[in-house]
Amino acid sequence: MARRSLAKCPKALSKYGFCGLLAVIYAAKLEMPANLTQLHAFFAEVKRICAMDSSKWRNALPKKQGGISFEHTVCLLRHYKGCEFEEVPKPVDARKTNLSMWLRTRVLANSCYIVHVGKHAFFVDVGKSKGKWRIYDQRGPHSKKDLKTMCTKGGYGRKLVTRVLKIAECV
Questions:
Q1: How far is CA 121 from the centre of its chain?
Q2: pTM
Q3: Cβ neighbours for 155, distance < 8 A, ≥ 6 positions apart
Q4: Which of 41, 59, 104, 135 has its CA 20 to 30 A from that of 95?
């Protein structure tokens, strides 16, 4: 059975754009940073683990602090060993698969994913049926009822899915 009660990102931290790191926190079952000090300590740990340039986030604007690539996501999941994962192969029609279409056609019941769209990442938790999914990012949880809002112009529902990791166990 998929998890249902995941800790929400604190409002004070939502402006820091650490969506990829947040997805790793959910997938690897790490403790959610509760304040800015804990978030910066987590950033320092991530920089050390991924051997990132120390100025990568120091000089960035708050909304760009914490951004990581797909390769860094994989590196962190391997380091924390909190979950097993596999990359989902791109579908034949990958150039047309946006987040909305992916949620309708590609998810499996009782599963979890980390989905990268453009420069954003989500943790997706799917319940007992394929239509019972929840997306978690720094803006909070989103469900099927939020899909129309997500698909408005500039919304993430319209962005193309670039890479997907299926998390093996998400209990």
A1: 4
A2: 0.87
A3: 149
A4: 135
